[in-house]
Amino acid sequence: MSIFDSLPNVDNFLFCISLKWGTVLIAILGILSCSLGVVFHQQHHCLELERYADYIKYIKYVIVIAELWLFVTSIILLIGICMKKPQTATWFMYAAAFTALTVLVLTIAIVTLTKMSMTCSVPIAQTVVAVVGLLIWVYLIIVVKSYQNEM
């Protein structure tokens, strides 16, 4: 029994795409989002902050590691879809949930440290993107879990 067993099932991805092809698209989205996320999270306009620069740098390294874990499990999920291996969907769901939560929490930490410095503008847009991203990933995990039941 996993933490994902209590999630509801859906019949289609975005109301019209089969679960199999939806899961393939989600795995591809995982690969692309990780690629963009690694580049995006390494850029910060306040890295010259004296007191918090090291903390922000370490937080960003943790985010990159989480993104790389999602990248690897996205590739494994694509292989698992072809070989009908449901455990690859479980690995992907754990990686996606962990990455989305990590990005949200650590983005809030970056915003807090930036606000405490009072020398840079607060990147509120990053927090909004992280919250919306978390909500989107919850739906994507539900789709993968629904397809996992069919594998």
From TrEMBL:
Keywords in alphabetical order: Membrane, Transmembrane, Transmembrane helix
Keyword Membrane: yes
Transmembrane segments: 12-38, 58-79, 91-112, 124-144
Protein name (database record): Uncharacterized protein LOC114239875
Name of the gene encoding the protein in the UniProt record: LOC114239875
